[in-house]
Structure formats: structure tokens, C-alpha cells
Write a structure and sequence with these properties.
Radius of gyration: 16 Å
Number of helices: 5
Strand content: under 5%
Largest sheet: none
Number of strands: 0
Number of domains: 1
Distance between the termini: 44 Å
Oligomer: single chain
Shape: globular
Structural class: mainly alpha
Length: about 130
């Protein structure tokens, strides 16, 4: 019999970690590995926690954008929330939501980096 130990990470922490892993794979252009990570998540709860991690990241970065860009990002977040709500209970629909949420993180990161360069600050976005 296999010894199973309880994880010291909360579901939210696991979701945030997986979101960061998925995002890194997407940013590195490793689409097959990113898809494999999503395919490995078959529980709607797991998918929702990963999405929460991506949403938190996008909103954190988006808060630093200029007003008009921030408003556009907020609108995209609302649309992503609607996509998530329509996919409730549908694993493949939630995976689609995660793909689009990751695209939003990439978009706001690029916008923030462009704005920083425009302002003369070369510091990377955290």
C-alpha cells in the first residue's frame, strides 16, 4: 500500500503554482507542454484555481497600465469572467478559459513593458 501524505499547499497555492508553470510554458512557446499541463487537470476545481492564479496575475500587472489600457484590460477581464461562467462544469470549456486568461497575462505584460520602455524605465515586470 502506498503512503499518501497531505500536501502542505492549499488548493489556492497549488492553483497559483500551476498557473505560473502554465504561463511560463506559454511564454516560452512550449505549447505542447502547456497543453499537457492543462490535459492533466481534469477536475473543475483544479481548473478554477489555476484560472484564479492567472486572473490575479493579469489584474496585478494591469493595475500598472495607463488609464485607457487599464480600462481595456478590465473589460477583457469581465469578458473572461463571462467565458468562465458559461463554462461552469465543462472541463474543456474551462481549459479554453485558461488558454485565453494566459493570453491576457501575456498581453498586459507586453503592454506594461512597452509603457515602461516608453517612460524610460528598463526594469523588468515582476
Amino acid at each position: 500500500m502506498e503512503d499518501v501524505t497531505a500536501s502542505s499547499e492549499s488548493p489556492a497555492e497549488v492553483g497559483a503554482r500551476r498557473a505560473a508553470e502554465y504561463l511560463q510554458l506559454v511564454q516560452d512557446g512550449r505549447t505542447e507542454d502547456a497543453e499537457a499541463l492543462l490535459t492533466g487537470l481534469s477536475d473543475t476545481r483544479e481548473l478554477v484555481f489555476v484560472g484564479a492564479g492567472l486572473t490575479t496575475t493579469a489584474r496585478r500587472i494591469g493595475r500598472g497600465l495607463p488609464t485607457a489600457m487599464r480600462a481595456q484590460s478590465s473589460t477583457r477581464q469581465v469578458l473572461l469572467g463571462q467565458l468562465r461562467d458559461r463554462a461552469r462544469g465543462d472541463v474543456e470549456g474551462l481549459r479554453t478559459w485558461l488558454r485565453r486568461a494566459a493570453e491576457e497575462v501575456v498581453t498586459v505584460t507586453q503592454l506594461a513593458e512597452t509603457d515602461r520602455r516608453r517612460l524610460g524605465d528598463q526594469a523588468p515586470i515582476s
